[in-house]
Amino acid sequence: MFSWYQNSTRCYVYLSDVIAPPRTPWKDAFQKSKWFTRGWTLQELLAPSSVEFFTVDGERLGDRQTLSQAIRQATSISWRALKTTPLHLSDFSIDERLSWAAGRETKREEDAIYSLLGLFDVHMPPIYGEGKANAFDRLESEIERKLVLDSSRKRSASEAFETTLTGLEGSNSKLKQSTSDRAQEHSVVMQDWWAEAIARNMGTPRGYAKVTVLLLKWADELDELQTSNEVEELGHIFQDRFNFEIEVAELNHRSKPQRQMDRIITTFVEAHDQPRNLLIVYYTGHAIHYKNAGRLEFLPSSQPPAAGGTSTSGQINWYKTEDFLCSDEVDGDILAILDTEYASNGDVRHVSNDERDSNYKDQGTARRFQLISSRDNPAPGSESLTRALIDGLKELWERNRTSGFSTQDLHQCIEMNPIRSGISSKMWSLLPNKRHILLTPIAHSENDTCEFQQHRSRPERGYLKLGLELKDSSLDQEQIESLAKILWSSLDNQSIGLQGIDWLGFERRDKGHSRLQHLSP
């Protein structure tokens, strides 16, 4: 059955216990649906390339991609398993695959085991009446037999990942591309593990030392959309719930807006930029995109410039600001949020995944720059990106007051918001480091000081790059934790003055070649 679902184009899920919005708050009902507790539905959830969910009234709620956050909370299945298409089961350990079935029920006790056969690509005849324990013993034997036949591949999730990659290499170009994509995904996972491990061993918080938000809007007399109320509400959310510092900048025509923008951004970076800081830049208003000229221009009105050309005085070229924030003039991470038209067109400006082809190699750090944008620009109100952003921040703050949440969680929350049905947003990374940014409330102490209010000079510092040659082509979480502990305890010496240990990337050496394939995120 698993392979049958895997070969399907699309799977439609009818949830008889979920009523269409807005008559009821459907998110809680969706997560509590009995469909997520049935044994046989596990393969229906994971095997197809596309799974779409519908209410009892036939209203579409979304698919496995857009609803992955809610599904993960309902099932405890990892984000990687829900988002990877097609699903390569050998990327996941036996224990993890078994955990996916936790809490699921079947009418016949043996079916709790028989429904898992496809997850391990094994076959055995059903014997109803043998009991769940005996069925599980037979399943274990079949898994053992398959592993022996596959050259004793009983190993950790990371080793299974290695085997899958090498087995696919040498096939057609499409499979090679799939291998590369999956390697990229696993490299991002390893980098997340490293960030957690090194923070624990260094005794530093996993979040940022400081987060500052710049809210950009047009002056009220120019602002056709009248965004003041939403901007003010968003500022209170960042300030009151997350303890982020807030700056509001209003753009006007008293001087050239481009010069204002350059001055605002430069001053903002000089005042608040540091390697362990996060800078959030938010803009709301109109925009127009000139594809041939390579410009995304912010403007206060929906009316395009006269004479049919780009304006060099009345508008603001966002790409100029974007390039500065990507450059090695900035040390901290950047999150940009653009509630404006055409902003999603900027994804064509993605930098290369290869750090050798970008200014990333000159920065000496694994900086991140992510951008969340709207594909359109509804006026302030229930359907705007800013409204969905406010709702998402409130919801995620309530659920993760101390642990924080990622920009991926925030974007999924925006996409799941029923008030924006049919209105999509987009998120992408503008630097080679594809790890998602973590948003965690800042815990202020009495010793907190505002030390970056004046222009600061950039102190000279060294950055040592070492390479570790490993016997395995990937690492699991336990190995990474051990590596972080050993490195930090060995290098935590006052004479060295170690400030941190960054994970810059991971390379896998082909068994038959001496060259390295670059797999850094």
SSE layout and pairing:
Layout: H1 2-6, E1 11-14, H2 26-31, H3 41-46, E2 51-54, E3 60-63, H4 68-75, H5 79-83, H6 94-99, H7 111-114, H8 132-149, H9 157-168, H10 173-202, E4 210-218, H11 228-241, E5 245-251, H12 257-272, E6 277-284, E7 286-290, E8 295-299, E9 316-317, H13 318-326, E10 333-339, H14 360-363, E11 369-374, H15 385-399, E12 405-406, H16 407-416, E13 425-429, E14 438-439, H17 477-491, E15 507-509, E16 516-518
Parallel strand pairs: 1-2, 4-5, 4-6, 6-10, 10-11
Antiparallel strand pairs: 2-3, 7-8, 8-9, 11-13, 12-14, 15-16
Helix pairs in contact: 9-10, 10-17, 11-15, 15-16
Protein architecture, described:
- This protein is an alpha/beta fold and 521 residues long.
- It has three domains: 2-168, no CATH class; 184-203 and 461-518, no CATH class; 210-439, Rossmann fold, CATH 3.40.50.1460.
- Helices cover 35% and strands 15% of the residues.
- The protein is built from 17 helices and 16 strands.
- The protein has helices spanning 2-6, 26-31, 41-46, 68-75, 79-83, 94-99, 111-114, 132-149, 157-168, 173-202, 228-241, 257-272, 318-326, 360-363, 385-399, 407-416, 477-491; strands spanning 11-14, 51-54, 60-63, 210-218, 245-251, 277-284, 286-290, 295-299, 316-317, 333-339, 369-374, 405-406, 425-429, 438-439, 507-509, 516-518.
- It has a six-stranded mixed sheet with strand order 5-4-6-10-11-13, sandwiched between helices.
- Helix 9 runs antiparallel to helix 10 and helix 11 (228-241) packs parallel to helix 15 (385-399).
- The model is unreliable at 151-179, 307-313, 350-365, 446-458 and 511-521 (pLDDT under 50).
